[in-house]
Amino acid sequence: MGETKVVAMRPFVPAKDFAVSQRFYEDLGFAVRSLGPGLAEVSLGGFGFLLQDYWVQDLAGNFMMHLLVEDVGSWWERIAGLDLAARYGVREPKAPEMQPWGLVVGYVVDPAGVLWHVAEQKR
Q1: Are 112 and 55 in contact (CB under 8 A)?
Q2: pLDDT tens for residues 91-108?
């Protein structure tokens, strides 16, 4: 394949209600930039994904994203203060706790059913 430089690798994340999902991610602190009808770039620093106006329950219900952060406690404070369950009708976020695989992980479900693992690696 040669020396090809990768510029980005981003998953397409489903949205049941595209506008609601965009607001949800903005509330979490992501930057959302429209790329055209039904497609948005959602980013945080140099990392991101493509939010698509496309939803299949079986896909969304099995879709997971992993966000590794330096301080999951700070992230949790922000998440807990957003009252996501009441504002977006999502499952109540689950507070971070140590998992058997060595990460402290909190769980957040987006409006389409995508499960986010917000994690910190303890050293």
Answers
A1: yes
A2: 999 999 999 999 999 999
